[in-house]
Amino acid sequence: MNWLPRFAFPGRGSREAGSNTGRGRLFVYLALTAIALLLSYQLVLSRESLSSVSRWAVGKGLTLAVNHAESNGNQTSEGKPEAHLVSQKPREKELVLAAMSYSNMSWVQENVPNWYTNIYRADVPPGEAALTVPMNKGNEAMVFLTYIIDRYDSLPDVSVFMHGGRYQWHNDNPLYDSVISINDLQLDYVRETGFVNLRCSWVVGCPVELEPARYFREKLEDNGHPTAVEYPHRFMELFPGEELPELVGTACCSQFAISREKIHERGIEDYQRARQFLIETRLASEISGRVFEYVWHIMFGKPALNCPDVRECYCRTYGYCNMTDDDLQRQWVWRGLVLPEGWPNVDPNAGLQKRDEIPSVEYWRK
Ligand SMILES: *[C@@H]1O[C@H](CO)[C@@H](O)[C@H](O)[C@H]1NC(C)=O
Ligand SMILES: *[C@@H]1O[C@H](CO)[C@@H](O)[C@H](O)[C@H]1NC(C)=O
Ligand SMILES: *[C@@H]1O[C@H](CO)[C@@H](O)[C@H](O)[C@H]1NC(C)=O
Q1: Which of 9, 274, 308, 358 measures 20 to 30 Å from 239, CA to CA?
Q2: Whose CA is nearest to atom 6 of ligand 2?
Q3: CB distance 189 to 202 below 8 Å
Q4: Are the C-beta atoms of 198 and 186 separated by less than 8 Å?
């Protein structure tokens, strides 16, 4: 509301009001009318956005608390890209989270309130959530590309792209906790290197995941690995004219941090073409989305085979530079694609480690 005093009593106007009572009264009257109009407009706007959020939120058994969690701060609720930011100083960092209408996102506001956060509700039709996507296809890839396209001219220094749930099997710390990943991420390293995969562990994706050139040459069929079969053709659609790589490898699962400059190394039309591919493809979302897991690093300038040394990766990405061999071995454990119910409040009776036996990242920092 800081426009109020400035609008009603601009420096010169108020002095004039003192010297000329008639004009002064007229000015105050006009100002009050304008304020009343602005206020009623504001009310209509907030009621509309509130009801559209509550429509799906209540339908899915969520409380209105999610309305608050859609953004930690000044985000518009109309789902429009923040055009006004173009003329403002860009933010230092933003989170981009791929969620669904039913996802409980309060963990963001509760744990990383210092991050400006973009929570996309992928299954909510356009216009009915603060942020959503043109079509719910391609899993998180649709969300990430939509953010890049809409915010191409107002990107922060660093954008961090992740799945919406706080605990994900592929989060690279012993608690599988996004909060730890976000808090420990070395932003200077991201600025300096441009693109950083948030996963260092080689489990799933490294040292090699796909062999596109060979699959293409030998016209291989492999029902057990549809991504490998589709990848060569989709690669050629996404990167027309670029040579098909022999080997593709990167730590899986589409979570990464990236600098504005790195995103800008490609024109917006590349991202638009990639999103159009997702919209039009006949592939099921889990396959088109998986293709993108092995596309991001190439799109952002890394070699097709991008499996850095694990020790160095933890040190640079998270500042964990004091890890023993044993720490490196134990830091990430495969527990299946779904974490145990109630994680991380684990139950030793169910054969799980006690919470205090799960390694802490404390000693890994130097
Ligand atoms: C919201 O805006 C205020 C002032 O306009 C600014 O100080 C604050 O940092 C902004 N918050 C976020 C999360 O961007
Ligand atoms: C959402 O998660 C928070 C913890 O971040 C929890 O306290 C709250 O009860 C959850 N809300 C619902 C509706 O499950
Ligand atoms: C480095 O790790 C060792 C054992 O793993 C630990 O004793 C030591 O305190 C750690 N150093 C720091 C600075 O935390």
Answers
A1: 308
A2: 106
A3: no
A4: no
> 107 with 179: CB under 8 angstroms?
yes
Q: Which atom of ligand 1 is nearest to the CA of 91?
A: 14
Paired tokens of 112: 């990383």
Res. 107: pLDDT tops 50: yes
DSSP type of residue 17: H
List, as own/partner pairs, every contact residues 224-233 make where C-beta atoms lie below 8 angstroms and the sequence separation is at least 24, other chains included: 226/287, 227/287, 227/290, 227/291, 227/294, 230/283, 230/287, 230/291, 231/291, 231/294
Q: Are 165 and 94 in contact (CB under 8 A)?
A: no
Does the CB atom of residue 89 touch ligand 3 within 6 A?
Answer: no
Rama region for 61: left / alpha / beta (φ>0; ψ in -120 to 50; rest): left
Residue 211's alpha-carbon distances to 18, 197, 204, 216, 278, in angstroms, are 80, 21, 15, 9, 22
Please tell me the residue having the least CA distance from ligand 1 atom 2: 74
- Nearest CA owner, ligand 1 atom 4: 74
User: With a threshold of 0.90, does the pTM exceed it?
Assistant: no
Nearest bound ligand to CA 359?
Answer: 3
**Tens digits of per-residue pLDDT, 274-312?**
999 999 999 999 999 999 999 999 999 999 999 999 999
Please identify, by atom number, the ligand 1 atom nearest to the C-alpha of residue 116.
13
Q: What is the pLDDT of residues 201-241, one digit of tens each?
A: 999 999 999 999 999 999 998 888 899 999 999 999 999 99
Work out which ligand 1 atom sits closest to the CA atom of 71: 13
| Residue 102: other Cβ atoms inside 10 A | 14
The span from the CA of 95 to the CA of 337, in Å, is: 24
Residue 335: band (very low, low, confident or very high) from pLDDT cuts 50, 70, 90 = confident
How sure is the predictor about 331, in pLDDT bands with cuts at 50, 70 and 90? confident
Upstream peptide bond of 134 is cis (omega within 30 degrees of 0): no
**Which of ligand 3's atoms lies nearest the C-alpha of 366?**
13
Looking at residue 167, the DSSP 8-state letter turns out to be B
Length of the chain: 366
By alpha-carbon position, which residue is closest to atom 10 of ligand 3? 363
Q: What is the mean pLDDT of the chain?
A: 81
Phi, psi of 96 (to 5 degrees): -125, 115
